Amino acid sequence: MKACGAAQALNNHILDSTSMSGGYAISKIKGMKTFEQRGWRRGGSSIRNDDNEEESPPMGRVRSRLMAASSIPNDALTATSFKSDGMTNHNSASTINDKIRKGPPMKILFLSSDTGGGHRASAESLGKQFEKHYPGSTYDLVDLWTKDGCLPYRSLVSSYKHLSASPNQWRFLYHFTNTSPYLFLTDTHSWLLCERKIRKTIESYNPDVIVSVHPTMQNVPLISTRKIAKKLGKLIPFITVVTDFGSGHCHWFHRGVDKVYVASDRIRRLARRRGRVRNDRLIQIGLPIRVDFPIQVEAMGDRTSEKGKRYQMNLRNQLGITHPTKKMVLVMGGGEGVGSLSRIAEALYATFTKEGVDATIVVVCGRNENLKKELNEKDWKKLLADKQNSSKRNKRRFNFRGRAKPGSRIRQSLQNYEERESRKREGDVDVVGLGFVTNMAEYMVATDVLVSKAGPGTIAEAASVGLPVMLTSYLPGQEAGNIDIVLDGGFGDYCSDPDGIAEEVACWLQDEPLLEIMSKAATAVGAPNAASDIVLSIGDFAEDCMEKNRQKK
Description:
There is one protein chain. It is elongated, with a radius of gyration of 24 Å. By secondary structure, the protein is of the alpha/beta class. It is about 50% helix and about 10% strand. The chain has helices spanning about 5-15, 35-40, 65-70, 75-80, 115-135, 145-150, 155-165, 165-175, 180-205, 220-230, 265-275, 290-300, 305-320, 340-355, 370-375, 380-390, 410-420, 440-445, 455-465, 480-490, 500-510, 510-525, 530-550, and strands at about 90, 105-110, 140, 210, 240, 260, 280-285, 325-330, 360-365, 430-435, 450, 470, 490-495. It folds into two domains: about 85-290 and about 530-550, Rossmann fold (3-Layer(aba) Sandwich), CATH 3.40.50.2300; about 290-390 and about 405-525, Glycogen Phosphorylase B (Rossmann fold, 3-Layer(aba) Sandwich). A seven-stranded parallel β-sheet has the order 1-7-6-5-4-2-3, sandwiched between helices. Strands 10-9-8-11-12-13 form a six-stranded parallel β-sheet, sandwiched between helices.
């Protein structure tokens, strides 16, 4: 089978198709819309720049790469790294048993803003790696715009909380601001009104290296850093670590920074085209994720191996899962517990019970205590009876006419699933509601499928532990490209309708070989040691600058 050619042909066919229902799909699943229904336009729109590559829509369902992944050798999967043209490229397949670098202590200043939890999480992960590899190092995280910005910049955090809950408003603002004219205006305006205050704040920290993990923390902070360096007569490296995976706003990319670290080919191409960042300043490693993930990855090994399965069972026992031998599905909606979690949990319970799938559904409610209480106190048997009485759904048939067909392996899986619908035995399903979880790595290792919104950090963490993903929602523009990371990688799918989500996840759970293929595909995309590798790379550059500074004295 010519896997790569088949995958490319299928991708091209889907791009030219007017239907979003293709690949590994349950035909007629709700929530899958055409390009026109989604509002996507192949040629862009009046508020989009032709360079906005990340604005291509999520295409198809799990593509033929899912099937092709089964032909990739295991050793290739564990050492896969992206390729680029003339760009520094690191393989993040090292383990935490590798010799830990012991470099000189440094003072690191991270620039970020709490517009989503991923920026702070990345900074904290990098900071802990600096402490490990450079003992005695200290780091600070500062939001320059909230502290020293004028309007509208100092209201970024509050504006984000409002707009992220209003997708249509977010879509318009994202695309409107993701243009070169707007970038020029904001850079000029913020430089004239805010640069002096920002320079004073940065100078007060006296950093050895500055690391920006937020798209708005490039131009003015860089200007201030260069002025401080000139005044003090020393080199102060300015680094950008892009914490987006598949889509990237143009504010991320500034050709004047010393190094730009990216996680994917999609972001690398954007950095080259939108920011004109030189290849020798681009380093592609992966997305920095929380430090407990590489620890869990090394302890588990290959998720599909006997050792990995035993470790999974032991971890479920430690987490207090009542029936550890059942399949386990982890449902997440972010720290605030949003994203129609209740409806998704109800659909999963009803479908698993009807399809005879024995499973434990673990719902992470975050800070939403009301949702946690509702899930743990709900009469699930009554819910099932109400659903059966209110809706008599016809038996589903998989019809691939008029769209791209998935591979034979996937068609066979769907056919088997269709035949299993006539089974009479009900599934034994438990639902567990959790609050805010701090040991997410353990839960991701313990589970079989993750159901979540398309956050870049969540996807990177799932991939690092070889976990198949069903994506349920995304922020327009900002997270649209993350869906393509999962679809192109062959380790998951996207659907917005709770019933459609439940139907497809039920199919996955009843096809163990398919889960193994998807797990291997996720492992190929994952980079569990990215934070450590990024810090070692930054540290090398910073050490050179510190040595030159000492020679000047």
